[in-house]
Amino acid sequence: FILQARKAVRRLRDAGRFKNILIQGHTVKKQTTSTLSYLHSWCNVQSQIRARRICMVTEGRLKQKKMENQMKLEAKLHELEVEWCGGSETMEEILSRIQQREEAAVKRERAMAYAFSHQWRANASQYLGQASYGAGKENWGWSWIERWIAARPWEVRNHSQPIHPKKTHGRQASKSEKEMKVLASVKPCLPNGKVAPKAKNGAPSDG
């Protein structure tokens, strides 16, 4: 009977220990879950703080750059205002003056291109006899190298044409034969202005 009682007490103790272990395991699991959730929330907060800091730094740099550009623009406009009229003008008038100045520069460049194109045509007509090139608006954007090469196409042609001495010799011979025939066909004139009669074959040539 005593042995059975001891065994029962041991079983109760083991059951209590097991129950305590289960309770502790559940508590630890719950604590672990809550800790992980807290860590996840903390990581989210840190990422949001980091993103906000980056955004604030970027916005600050953009604002600073915008302010610097605005200050530079205002200083430049003030210098232009003092340079042009020496008095105070509105922003619209200054901007219109800047636009007029840019348009004048564009017109001056176009006039220079037009004058250069006419000079190029004159040089081309001097060397080639007549020029068949027009000065259109599409040629105003050429660089000076392209215009210089386009203005001298005859040099490329002279270098590209081969020289054939045989053909030139044959042409000179045919040309001399034609000249001899023309001279033979010309009838001599007498002192009285009449044309001399053509001599017949075999007749004497004197008198």
The proportion of residues forming helix, as a percent range, comes to over 70%
Structure class? mainly alpha
Low-confidence stretches: 130-141, 153-169, 199-207
The radius of gyration over CA amounts to: 54 Å
Q: Termini distance?
A: 191 Å
Listing every helix as H and every strand as E from the N terminus to the C terminus, the arrangement reads HHHHH
Family: Belongs to the IQD family.
Region (Disordered): 159-207
Organism: Gossypium laxum
Protein name: Protein IQ-DOMAIN 1
Question: What would you note in describing this structure?
Answer:
- The chain is mainly α and 207 residues long.
- Among the domains are: 1-65; 92-161, no CATH class.
- It contains five helices and no strands.
How is this structure best summarized?
Helices cover 76% and strands 0% of the residues. It contains 5 helices and no strands. The chain has helices spanning 2-84, 91-128, 144-150, 153-160, 165-185.
Keywords:
calmodulin binding; rod-shaped; Protein IQ-DOMAIN 1; mainly alpha; calmodulin-binding
